[in-house]
UniProtKB/TrEMBL annotation:
PANTHER family: DUF262 DOMAIN-CONTAINING PROTEIN, SLL5132 PROTEIN. InterPro entries: GmrSD_C, GmrSD_N. It comes from Bhargavaea cecembensis. This is DUF262 domain-containing protein. Residues 421-546 form the GmrSD restriction endonucleases C-terminal domain.
């Protein structure tokens, strides 16, 4: 590993040694008041107990060399670095106030901070020590770094800018409260102690490497318990690097994609997208594969354009609830059913179809068959789901390359389905405890018999009813072993809506039939056709449900 510099050093030494850049792919300033409060309490403890040092954390830096120049990018530690500069700026403001009150020694600290740790700035000469990423940089420069020379009248617009402002004001208030009621000279002694304690006593483990990938590995090793950089962060940096003249457009589309994802995992989404058009790849190899294949501004722009277009689609198929991009009620219902299955292996197919502008009727034909395939093979037959991730990705690639159409995909799906004989056999003896799946099955079967009835398959208001109950009352004469063997058989289950009555859930069958009589659900009312309820009637009903399932799936 190409570590070219590592040292245990003071925060003052770190800030003074170089000019540092925070890459665009890094998270915005995210410290909340509780974290800034911890920072202050650590510093206060260090000063009050006259301790020698406090370990502030690690700083991982990538030294990126280009020809004869180099830039040092902070890969881990950007939050600490920004907070350090905020604190020094707040302390500098307190010293300016003391200077105005006649304590001229305080001005030495102001100059010390400006020259060594924050740096100077003018429109023609930028010598600031820390450059943060994206649109927050201008606010940070005006509100924090050049506060003593530029009127701090800028208004925070983004969440990060508001956090910067809040952190600054919190630390300024803490410093001022420490010297409240003291004369300028007494105040200076305390402020100077805080200054020295921070600059000399806060220690960091500094690690510097020339490779971004190695910096990432170091970061993960040192910070295993923290939220590490995502593959999407690294990919964003690479896309920005190769975009050159297209950088503004690429950035805008990337930010739009992130906003459209609405908190969804960007790395997962990008991997599903990549697998919808390229050779299948696992998450751990995604960045390497994409970095090797995306090397021009045009390729970078094409990728982010696709990602921006598809992010709302990914939300529609991956989030439990939310706004959908699809107009077809049947298509949305099919996607909802696939969510009940917990299925995600089909995502690349949806992304490929949408990216190729397939109409919703054709998408429904494909997804309707995928619903049946997953229900038969994975939900009922318990086939391993992993194989379908690779299989579906291959089909998606065929769609992306205009090699496979609707009929081709449907034919391939039909070849993968377990046979009718196998499916029938599984349904005949099905034991199932997954409540959303139970609701799904009975909702589908009920639709064969209902005329205008409404049933919500995933609603918590639709209860799973054990006809032979979980807890047997004296009205049931059945061995416990037989009871357990049959309790979760499909034939012993049904659905109840608002007619559900907890008071009679364990009663005998004749009593429970009075509740079933009032049900709005056809398959539940059908139970009135049975005189009694035992193992033979459970098997009889299960056989009938199997026949219904053969008609549907």
């Amino acid at each position: 590993m190409a570590i070219q510099n590592y040292a245990f050093k003071s925060i003052g030494s770190f800030l003074q040694d170089n000019t540092y850049y925070i890459p665009d792919y890094q998270r915005e300033y995210s410290w909340e008041e509780s974290q800034v409060e911890d920072f202050w309490n650590d510093l206060k403890t260090l000063r009050e107990y006259n301790e020698e040092e406090h370990f502030f954390g690690q700083i991982v830096v990538q030294d990126e060399k280009e020809e004869k120049t180099s830039k040092k990018f902070i890969i881990d530690g950007q939050q600490r670095s920004i907070t350090s500069v905020i604190f020094l700026s707040a302390l500098s403001e307190v010293c300016n106030s003391l200077d105005e009150q006649g304590c001229f020694e305080a001005q030495e600290i102001v100059e010390d901070i400006k020259i060594k740790y924050i740096g100077r700035w003018s429109p023609n000469n930028d010598r600031l020590q820390l450059r943060i990423a994206n649109s927050d940089n201008e606010f940070f420069r005006a509100f924090v770094q050049t506060r003593s020379t530029v009127a701090p009248d800028v208004q925070p617009l983004t969440k990060a800018q508001k956090r910067i402002e809040k952190s600054y004001k919190y630390l300024l208030n803490q410093l001022n409260s420490e010297i409240e009621g003291l004369n300028p000279d007494e105040s200076f002694l305390i402020i100077n102690e805080y200054y020295k304690s921070f600059i000399n006593g806060f220690k960091v483990m500094y690690v510097e490497t020339t490779s971004l990938e190695e910096a990432f590995i170091i970061f993960e090793s040192l910070n295993a318990r923290g939220r590490g950089l995502e593959t999407s962060d690294l990919l964003k940096n690479h896309l920005f690097k190769v975009s050159k003249a297209q950088i503004d457009t690429v950035k805008r589309k990337w930010e739009s994609m992130v906003n459209n994802l609405d908190g969804n995992d960007a790395t997962r989404f990008i991997r599903y997208y990549w697998n919808s058009r390229e050779e299948f790849v696992r998450t751990q190899n995604l960045y390497k594969r994409m970095k090797n294949q995306i090397n021009s501004p045009g390729e970078s722009l094409k990728i982010v354009t696709h990602l921006d277009k598809l992010a709302p689609v990914y939300n529609s198929i991956s989030q439990k609830d939310g706004v959908t991009v699809f107009n077809s009620e049947k298509l949305n219902e099919t996607i909802k059913n696939l969510k009940v299955f917990g299925a995600s292996s089909y995502y690349p197919i949806v992304l490929a179809m949408y990216n190729k502008d397939w109409d919703e009727e054709h998408m429904l034909k494909v997804l309707g068959q995928i619903e049946i395939l997953i229900f038969r093979n994975i939900i009922i037959a318990s086939n391993v789901a992993n194989k379908y991730e690779v299989l579906f990705a291959g089909w998606a690639r065929g769609i992306a390359n205009d090699e496979l159409g609707v009929t081709d995909i449907v034919n391939r799906i039909n070849k993968e389905k377990i046979s009718d004989e196998e499916f029938s056999s599984y349904m005949e003896r099905l034991v199932i405890k997954n409540k959303p799946i139970i609701r799904y099955i009975f909702s589908k079967i009920n639709s064969l018999y209902s005329s205008g009835e409404t049933i919500i398959s995933t609603s918590e208001n639709v209860h799973i009813e054990h006809i032979m109950p979980v807890n047997l009352s004296d009205e049931w004469s059945i061995e416990e072993e037989t009871h357990q063997e049959n309790l979760w058989k499909l034939g012993n289950l049904t659905l109840l809506g608002k007619e559900y009555n907890k008071k009679i859930q364990n009663k005998g069958f004749s009593t429970k039939k009075q509740m079933y009589k009032d049900s709005e659900i056809s398959i539940t009312r059908q139970l009135l056709n049975y005189e009694d309820w035992d193992v033979s009637t459970i098997e009889q009903r299960q056989s009938g449900l199997r026949e219904d399932a053969m008609r549907i799936w």
